[in-house]
Amino acid sequence: MKNKILIFGAGTIGVFIGTKLKDAGFDITLKGRKRLDQLNDIIHINDSVQTELPHRADRLDNTKFDVIFVTVKLYDLLPALEEISSRHISYDTLVLTQNGIQTDKILDGSDRKKIVKIAIFEGYTIASKDKILAQDNLRGWQLNESSGSESILEILGKAGIKAEISKNFDTIKAEKMLINCSVSALSIIKDKTIGNLMNDSEDRSVVIKLIDETYSVLCAKYNMRPLDQVRQITIASLEANASHYPSLYQDFKRGEKTELDYFNGQIIQWAKELNIPVHVSEEIYNKAKQILGSNTRS
């Protein structure tokens, strides 16, 4: 019997996952909001042949799924988990794909033995009503070690999604946080793609300073690799996504709430608690905050 899978919060990444899994033969249901409703029934991923979107559902009360991919933004994760619980939507495995670092409190009330976490290093953009752009990255998708990780790895593999299980997932997640903090806010200020930031000597210098400052905070909380190595890996990841706009920039351009406070804002908060100077991070955060106005978490 083919797996019954729900994509809860089917925005850009969710639609990509759902469509790839549907084409691989899985029974897929999409549950999303505004962005999902704006898409055509037939779409393309990059320049591939056209494919049909999976079934879109409004209400899912008292429904059982083998797997639920929760692909909402980090600020919507707790409400999503509460909705899944209150509507009695059951599952064998719950997959979380959020950027940023989740606090343990968010997962209170969830069966942690059933949870698989993924750090996604590839970039995705809804380019139009009938097209999603997927940017390949050498690091692919990184899964934490849990009881359900092997089955999720197999499901992703059948859909042609490059993934692997990481024994150092917390470190990997911190490195993804570092990537987000190094370019997301700056791309809003400069109105540039990642590649355009990296190709401008002045902007590239700021990116490297943001990498170094973010590292100084994260290595006080996580078992990070040496700075030179992390800097090299981060720059390589950024250059692999050169044509991509960060997701935070995309949200800003759509007039949606952003995760600025969950990326740069979180680093600044930790830096204050640890008494670590992060002057460039504060300057970039404040400039981006002014541009975003009330479009960030209060």
Task: Report what the structure shows.
With 298 residues, this protein is an alpha/beta fold. It folds into 2 domains: 4-165, Rossmann fold (3-Layer(aba) Sandwich); 169-292, N-(1-d-carboxylethyl)-l-norvaline Dehydrogenase, domain 2. It is 43% helix and 18% strand. It is built from 11 helices and 12 strands. It has helices at residues 12-23, 34-37, 77-86, 149-158, 169-190, 194-199, 201-218, 227-240, 247-253, 264-274, 279-292, and strands spanning 4-8, 27-31, 42-45, 51-52, 55-56, 64-70, 90-96, 115-120, 123-128, 131-135, 141-143, 163-165. The strands form 2 sheets. Strands 5-2-1-6-7-8-11-12 form an 8-stranded mixed sheet, sandwiched between helices. Strands 4-3-10-9 form a 4-stranded mixed sheet, with helices on one face. Helix 7 (201-218) packs across helix 8 (227-240). The model has no long low-confidence stretch (mean pLDDT 91).
Characteristics of this structure?
298 residues, alpha/beta, Rossmann fold, N-(1-d-carboxylethyl)-l-norvaline Dehydrogenase, domain 2, 2 domains, eight-stranded mixed β-sheet, four-stranded mixed β-sheet, 11 helices, 43% helix, globular
Low-confidence stretches at least 5 residues in length (pLDDT < 50)? none
CATH superfamily of the largest domain: NAD(P)-binding Rossmann-like Domain
Q: Provide the helix percentage.
A: 40-55%
The fraction of residues assigned to DSSP E strands is 15-25%
Approximate shape: globular
CATH class of the largest domain: Alpha Beta
Work out the helix count: 11
- Tell me the structural class: alpha/beta
> Which H/E pattern describes the elements?
EHEHEEEEHEEEEEHEHHHHHHH
Q: Any idea what the radius of gyration is?
A: 19 Å
